[in-house]
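Working notes for the structural subgroup meeting. M.R. asked for a predicted model of this chain before we commit to crystallization trials. I am recording the input and output together here so anyone reviewing the notebook later can reproduce the run.

Input as submitted:
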Amino acid sequence: AYVVAVGEAAQREALAAVEAVRDKLGELVILQHTGAGSFKSQLKKADKSGARVALIWGEDEVANGKVTIKQLRDQAAQVDNPGQQTVPREHLEATLVAAFADRMG
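Returned structure, recorded in token form:
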């Protein structure tokens, strides 16, 4: 998973959420973008990183207490894959567990 966060508030929100997920799902690798960059450039870096999903925090997500999860890999292999979904922040962990069930022991 690769974190894409645009804006200072989004970066703070993403950091807190990712730390909580890492505490519970230590085997899940979550990369975080460092430094400035537009949404588009961060998403390109997420794709180049080889991450399976991008965890996206923007102004709307922060304002609504949500996170957008964008599928970057395996789209054709999963018939029920929504491609992109926005979930409440408190459901992030469960959503990631479901997305990575085949890779988590």
